[in-house]
Amino acid sequence: MKFMDFFKRKSTSNIAKERLKLVLVSDRATTSPEIMEKMKNDIIEVLSKYVEIDQDGLDIKITQVEAEGDDAAAGKTVPALYANIPIKSMKH
Questions:
Q1: How far apart are CA 11 and CA 6, in angstroms?
Q2: Is there a contact between 45 and 83 (Cβ–Cβ < 8 Å)?
Q3: Cα 72 from Cα 58, distance rounded (Å)
């Protein structure tokens, strides 16, 4: 994340939308919105070392998927992290 990104203004509706997404995702994953926000920030921080990220298009969520192997036969589901992270450019 670039230093100046911290000073960009986001519209109130975008901020509310982001918070609602975090609440919904954390509810599905049975984790708190704070933990989801920390996880998202950690992912962004690590990837930003290597690529420039389009944060407006960023979508990170935890959902339930069918288990594989022995658990699949029992019809179990497990949490899965899905991340759609648009890359503006690669850093060299």
A1: 14
A2: no
A3: 31
